[in-house]
Amino acid sequence: MEAPDLKAAVRAAASVGLTAALIEQPYRVAGRRSQAPAIQLDTSWVSAVRQLKDRELPSGPLLVGGRSAGARVACRTGAELGAHAVLCLAFPVHPPGKADDPTKSRLSELEAVTVPVLVVQGESDPFGRPPPGPGRTVVLVPGNHSLRGAAEIERIIAEWLAKQL
Q1: pLDDT tens digits for 19-60?
Q2: Residue 122, helix vs strand vs coil
């Protein structure tokens, strides 16, 4: 929740007139470092987003996104939530050091998204770099998985969001 790239995404959304909500993953709230299974992450995410849509978010197009594991969750659940676009910050294509093992690739999660996708990825991210694809824009920024260039990230996201409206 305190990651500079997430804060940049919130500022970018506000700059184009969108409301943004950050959702903490349940395993993080519980103080654990290891993730729950994907089905549990996805179920909690869908529930939280639906509650926000019903109670707090203004009507209009829904754009979902996240950083790292949260980006994977957004990709897997975007269709179910009726998302109009997906934002992925530091999408983990594969575990570090596993680029040559096709069984470890998570690219299929990203490729399954049928709405516009923006991926902001560090040039030297040990989790890999996804390729551009149909409806998918990949922007490389200096750095690794941490994505510390908040001003540049904010600009990139704001420009992309403006095109989605």
Answers
A1: 899 998 777 777 777 777 899 999 999 999 999 999 988 888
A2: strand
The pairing of beta strand 136-141 with beta strand 85-89: unpaired
C-alpha span between 45 and 156 (Å, rounded)? 25
What's the pTM?
A: 0.93
Please state, in angstroms and rounded to a whole number, the distance separating the CA atoms of residues 127 and 110: 14
Q: How far apart are CA 118 and CA 164, in angstroms?
A: 10
In this structure, what are the phi and psi dihedrals at residue 56, rounded to the nearest 5 degrees? -130, -35
End-to-end CA distance of the chain: 25
Angstrom CA distances, 127 to 8, 30, 91, 147, 161, stand at 21, 25, 8, 12, 25
